[in-house]
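[agent] plan:
  1. take the single chain provided in the ticket
  2. run structure prediction with default settings
  3. attach C-alpha cells to the ticket
  4. add a short note for the reviewer (M.T.)
[agent] executing step 1
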Amino acid sequence: MRKPRNFDAELKALEDKTKELKARKVRQLGELVIATGADVLTAEELAGALIVLAETKDAGKREAWAKRGATWFRSKPRRTAPANDDNAGSAPAQPGGTQSPSSGMGAA
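[agent] step 2 finished; step 3 output follows
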C-alpha cells in the first residue's frame, strides 16, 4: 500500500521556499542599489526614477539601459557567494555583490 502524501507539509515547504526567495530578491535589490551608488539618492528620488523606468515602453531606451547594465556587471569584480547564509547580515554588501547579469536585475 502506498503512503499518502502529506499535502500540508508540502504546502508549508513551498511557502517557506517562497519566503526565502522573496527575501533573497529584496536583499539582492538592496545590494544592487548600494553597488551602483544609487544609495546616495533619497527614497523619493530612487522611487521616482524606478517608476519612470518601469513605465518606459520605448524599446530602444530599454535596450540601451540593458546594454549599459550588462557592461556594468561585466566590469565589476565578483566575490564568490557564501555556501550558507549564517553570516548574511554580519557584513555590509560589497560593490558587485553576488548578482549575475543573467538574473535580469540589470535589464530594467
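[agent] step 4 note for reviewer: DSSP finds three helices and no strands in the chain.
[agent] ticket updated
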